[in-house]
């Protein structure tokens, strides 16, 4: 049986990452599985409640919530799908924890978080990073109701800087300003070099 392929999509809020991931999934059909973090499991629902309202949760507690959600998703969805030979498209993974929860000392940096997450969870075969400036991302988000706690300019600037320090050199970097169809083709080409599609 085919070994499967684990593809992770990352980018700041407003980058269009979820739209792109969904478009690729629609294109690939049943050979692919779309997963998303935070998940729809009880662990993910708890996170979405916390994201919707200001709170004073510590860095350690945020990392724990995302890690608990990830552990369940890996066990229940990711590992079985890869074993069945699927192409798994994961909308956010541990690079999000590193970029969003990474802070200045004495807190953990993005790099420290990514290293500890790599010891806990399977590594992706491919990382796709959708690049956009925080200003352009905010103007896209501006038309949406109910912004979440990380959706401010200073937060997005911190998160984009963190991403730059941790996204692997070999990642496929895409320009979020390009049409979705253009980026779908680029990702499909990269996937096609690794597995038959
Ligand atoms: P979404 O906008 O892609 O649905 O993700 C929800 C929010 O959760 C988004 O602002 C990014 C944030 N997030 C983290 O802060 N840490 C994480 O580990 C993940 C997976 C998401």
Which class of secondary structure composition applies to the elements? Answer: alpha/beta
The CATH architecture can be named as 3-Layer(aba) Sandwich
Helical coverage, percent range: 40-55%
Total number of helices: 8
Please give the CATH class.
Alpha Beta
**Measured on Cα atoms, how large is the radius of gyration?**
16 Å
**Overall body shape:** globular
What structural keywords apply?
5 strands, 197 residues, 8 helices, binds thymidine-5'-phosphate, five-stranded parallel sheet, alpha/beta, Rossmann fold, 13% strand
Describe the structure.
With 197 residues, the chain is of the alpha/beta class. The protein has a single domain (5-192), classed as 3-Layer(aba) Sandwich (Rossmann fold), CATH 3.40.50.300. 51% of the residues lie in helices and 13% in strands. The chain has a five-stranded parallel beta sheet with strand order 2-3-1-4-5, with helices on both faces. α1 (17-28) packs across α8 (180-192), α2 packs antiparallel against α3 (59-83) and α4 (94-101) runs antiparallel to α5 (110-118). The two termini are 15 Å apart. Bound molecules: thymidine-5'-phosphate. Thymidine-5'-phosphate is lined by residues 13, 18, 37-38, 51, 66, 92, 96-97, 100-101, 148, 150.
